[in-house]
Amino acid sequence: MVIGMVKRVELLAPAGNYEAFVGAVNAGADAVYLGGAKFGARAYADNFSQEEICRALRYAHIFGKKVYLTVNTLVKEREFSSLYEYLGPLYEAGLDGVIIQDLGVWQYIRETFPGMALHASTQMTITGSRGAQFLKEIGAARIVPARELSLSEIRSVKKSSGLELECFIHGAMCYGYSGQCLFSSILGGRSGNRGRCAQPCRLPYRIFDQEGNLRCDAGHVLSLKDMCTISFLPRLIEAGIDSFKIEGRMKRPEYAAGVTAVYRKYIDAYYEKGAQAYRVEQSDMDRLQRLYIRDEVQTGYYERQNGREMITLKKPGYLGQDAALLSEIAQNYLGGERKCCAALRAVFRIGEPACLQLEGEGISLTLKGRTVERARKQPMLPEDFLKHLRKTGNSFVKITEEQADVEEGAFMPVSLLNELRRTAAAAYEDRLIERNGLLPYRKSVKDTLQKRPEPLFPVQKKPQLHVAVQNLEQLRAALRYPCERIYLDSDWYLEESDQISQCFEGRNIPAIFLALPYIVREKDFAYFQELLTCSAEKIKADGFLVRNLESLSIMRSLAPSYVLVADAGVYCFNTETARFLRRYCAENYLPYELNGKECRQLVLEDCAESAGMAGTERFGMSAVVYGTIPMMLSANCVRKTAGSCQGQKNPCKRQEKYELSDRYHVRFPVQCRCRHCYNIIYNSVPFSLHQKKKELTEMPLFAKRLDFVWETEKQVEKILDYYFDKTDVFPAAEYTAGHYMRGVE
Q1: Helix (H, G, I), strand (E, B) or coil at 450
Q2: Which ranges constitute the DSSP H helices of 337-413?
Q3: How many angstroms separate the most distant Cα atoms in the chain?
Q4: Which residues contact 213 (CB under 8 A, 6 or more apart)?
Q5: Which residues pair with 487 in a beta bridge?
Q6: Inter-axis angle of helices 50-62 and 414-435, to 10 degrees?
Q7: What's the pLDDT tens digit per position in 657-702?
Q8: CA 549 and chain centroid, separation
Q9: What Rg value do the Cα atoms of the chain yield, rounded?
């Protein structure tokens, strides 16, 4: 490999406050990502004021660095109107990019702030090249793929999409796929999708198998070791990754600066000496270990699918911090902002414009000011002029040499001298920024968010009733009722298509939709082709329930004639997202994290907008009203952690139910989806809105859906009896209304 021909990878550091930002830049970061007062996925970090972000942009650009803003939470309808006020000044200040999760936010920023680089957050759960290609189509400049991808998958995504890839290389790791975890939200109301995760995965759990046998009592079975990839950076660079991202906006400035400095050293070493000579000194490994990291580290998913060796089974606390090391880092990198040196030369001739020249850093700038006056009383000496011109104040310019050519008797008001100095310093900074190929500022833009009229309650047919099933017992029960649509689990559909066909014989068949996997990867492309073949030859499907952008993109290309429905995990928190999804899906489901009032507002707003679309059928917005909520999707496997997984030699049956037991002996069911190699961790009790049956029937929903996972044939019948008004008694003794009553912050 010829090192000189490779584009240098960007080193991207975190900053939870302005001190951490300055430290990261001083330590060698090429770019910094940070959050402001709103819309960031680290709500408990110090975060930045608008003024601090503008100053950070100025500082970074002067020294050839970039700043990316995290706008990576899901945004509620009532919050959306504040996006313009929040982002407008930062856009004008030259913000380099925005990291986004919410598809409605994505669409709005793309339409409102032209030229803004859109980065897909890891919260979007991009797991393959088709999802990446979809994002490229809608304007992505960069994606932060799921942390679970291997190096070969990253190469494939890079090759097929051509997009910039930003991948994590160091820091804490979530057990679940980012963006697909409701664990903290469902249990405690603190949503990771809203930047408030309480980290229940760091608590102790025990693992039980299908028969109730204790298979693992080791402790923190959902707590991943921290990531440290310093030992194989060359392989990451050569995989085509464009930006190396350090996790840690919640951590102290010494961490941001210290970790950045170590990775800066070894990235530079690779480009100077190549992979063959690349060696990491033990002292630097020790240094990283002493900087706010858990007592065990691993290299992430780059080299493995999952494994027990990735888990911190003992208490996942952080190592004690080294006071001497922190002091050293503070002294080296946290001493404050750097300045750009300039030589100053000023000329003051009576009756002529004042002339000020700044020269340095390869730049020469000459600026004319107001006309120099003749002194009426006391004339000014050269030192009088220089005294005011050398005070560069809050700018990033430092005067290292100075000279003033002053005609005898010259005078200039101090206010005009100060104005000349400020204008010159700002112009000098602008020239430095432009030389670095960056923007000192942008022109202001107008808000494109249209104010909608107060929605009226539309005339609406009674919502359809749909049922999702995962086995033959459930299907047989559902077919005894006049459900308008049945969703079949797609894995089961392929496994038992002949038996499913027999169930349909001699019956009036409702619309059949296939519920696609929650997670699909590069290797799963053939799976979709198999589904379509089965649909053509055995059981005709009318549409598909898509649960991720990868599946959405694949089905759009392979099966454009089928109806696509976006599930609750393709989050729709606002009408902008609904408008976006309308381009690709006939229907979508409300997310689990909105309360009843927010759901109602969103459905009504969507109805009002759809009503004005002549010649088009109304976009169907639906709701899950019963089911066990999937709280976490994970590439790691509790069965493997328990030591009972032997890969394809001993695959887990799809309906096999492992369980996690917490400190209070609450059991959380786990499905091990071996065909796609991921786990679904479910809530301990079903989610049910049966007490809101009348309210939901009156809400202009397209459909209500009942999701059956573990229920027996008899249980399915009893629940359907209730929804078809054959009984007034709901059969479930234990249930939760989820967020319908309380919502999330």
Answers
A1: coil
A2: 382-389
A3: 110
A4: none
A5: 468, 513
A6: 60
A7: 999 999 999 999 999 999 999 999 999 999 999 999 999 988 999 9
A8: 13
A9: 30
